[in-house]
Here is the input.
Amino acid sequence: MRASSKKGGALGGSLCLDSHAKLNLTLNVFPKLESGLHPIHSIFQEISLHDTVDICYTKSNSPSLTLISEGICMPTDNTNIYSKIFLHFKDKLTHDYTLTTTKRIPLGSGMGGASTNAASFLKALIKIEGWNWTETDFINASTQFGSDIAFFIRGGSQLISGVGQVLSSTTVSPPSHYIIIHPHIHCSTKEVYDTFDTLYKPSQTLPSPSSDIGYNDLFLPVMTRYPEMKDIHDSLSTLLRSPVYLTGSGSTFFICLTDTLHAKPLIDKLKDHYPHFFVEIVSAIL
Here is the structure.
C-alpha cells in the first residue's frame, strides 16, 4: 500500500494512499462457529488494481468526516465503512477528515475493495493521530469492521486463517500476472455463505485445506445461488480454453498468467465477447 505525504503541519495536512485489491488464490471454508463466522484457510494475493484515497485533515475540537467519491460510484453516507470507523473512534480523534476516494475496484467483486479502503483509513488515523499501535492492535481493531482488513496490514502474499485475523507466510509461489473478469453481478456474501451452510452440514467433515491455486469452497455455493454466474463461468471456460477461477464469494473470475506475452489477444477476445464486463490484466504485488 503506497503512501505519500503531500504536506503537513501543526494544523493539518494531506496524505495520499493506494488501496490495492486482492485475490483469493485458494479458499477453504469450514463450518461456522457459534459466533456465526466461518473459519477459513486461504492464500490472499495483493494485486496492482487499486483505489486512490486522498485524505485531507485539519485540527478540530469537534471532528467531522466528509466523503467524496470519484470513479466507480460508492456510498458516501453512514453505510460506508469509512463512516463506521470514524464514528467508532470519534471520541479519540483530534482532526476533521475529508476523504476523496477514486474508486477503481468494482463494488461487490470479491476483491476486497471496502476492506482495503478501511485498512488505508486506519493506517492514516494511526499516523495522523499519533497512535502508538502494534500490528496486533491493528488486527484487533480491524476485525470489528471486517474479516479481510487485517490482510492489508502487510499485503503481498499471505496465508490467512482463523476468521481472517491470523496472518502467516506461505510457501506457495503465486503467478506473476492475472486477467480479472468482473461481470457486474453482485454476489451477496451472506447469501453465498448461507448456501454453503445448506450444502455442507455442520456435522460434515470437509477435506483438508488445499493449496492448489484456484481451489475455492465457495465456488459451488456461488454457482448454485447464482445460475447466471455458472453460465458465465462455462462460457468463459469454453472461450479461453483454460482454467477459470473464482475469487472469494464472487463475483470476479480470474485466470493465471505466467507472463504477459499472450495477454493482449486474450484481453481483446474477452472485451469483444463481453463488452460490458470489467476486464483487466493485473500483476501480483509481492
Q: What stands out?
A: Residues 113-129 form the longest helix (17 residues). The chain has a mean pLDDT of 92.
